[in-house]
Amino acid sequence: MRSPVTTAFALDDPLDRGLPRPGSLLRTAADSIPPSGLVLLAIFSVQLGAGFAKELFAALPPSAVVFVRIAAGALIMAVVARPKLKGMSWRDWAVGLTFGATLALMNLSFYEALARLPLGVAVAIEFLGPLGVAVAASRRRLDLVWIGLAGLGVALLAPWGESETTSWVGIGFALVAGACWAAYILLSAAAGQRFPGTSGLSIAMIISALLIAPVGVTTGGASLLQPELLLIGVGVGLLSSVIPYSLELQALRRMPKHVFGILMSMEPAAAALIGVLVLSEMLHVQQWAAIVCIVAASLGSTRTPRMPRPSRSAPSG
């Protein structure tokens, strides 16, 4: 499943001076790239954002990095989507608050997992969330194979002996993030029915930022006022939210959703590659085998489309 995004991110100039508008230029540039290329660019953008976020752990605790990342993303989304709060019913607020709380817990647990696990490992375990939702929506016996393959992947990632790169605590946080991602799938569908365009996601991100703010500000302290750290945080927000959303939106308009889901199944492998290139996280053969198992399980579960896959760019990274 992918994001409930249904409107384009256009930065149109309100003054018509006869010049090409930025939104039109962006759309024209995106149209020149094959849709599969747009999806891959979105995947690597999200994982690159996660890599830069992990680099911030040397200066800020994970909870503070989560706050900076979500606050930056929420601010950008609010400017772009301009959600209207007036006239919302109590059911709308209930969906928005639940969506925002899930988003907050998902990001916080994922970043805590990222602080204890290699990027590729954390993403692979978290990816069990949307994989579980896809399999649960099916009645095919073949899906038992994908469940077994995903279980094998987790077993290969578990630190049964002493391990310098994985920990049970990190795996626990990643599993919580995956469960929240599964809930995000259902809540994003509900928000998409109640809110136009990206306003539901924008409201959820604002609520998420407000919920995380007390923890993030307390743990980050005065370090949050350092301009260079804030700049990196804004960059993480752009790489993890705005850029992927724009690319995914353009791709979804030009390709079948099940093809989109198949391409998204490559995300754990992309995360592992970014971990190697950006963070110098060299994985063992057993960890690569585990990631291959989870990717294969995800690919198998998307062979017959049942429901859209979630946007990885919104939840975390």
From TrEMBL:
Signal peptide (from-to): none
Keyword Membrane belongs to the record: yes
InterPro entries the record matches: Diverse_Substrate_Transporter, EamA_dom, EmrE-like
Pfam families: EamA
Membrane-spanning residues: 33-53, 59-81, 93-111, 117-137, 144-161, 167-187, 199-217, 229-247, 259-279, 285-302
Keyword Coiled coil listed: no
Keyword terms, alphabetized: Cell membrane, Membrane, Transmembrane, Transmembrane helix
Compartments (UniProt record): Cell membrane
Protein family per UniProt: Belongs to the EamA transporter family.
Name of the featured protein: Threonine transporter RhtB
Source species: Nonomuraea cavernae
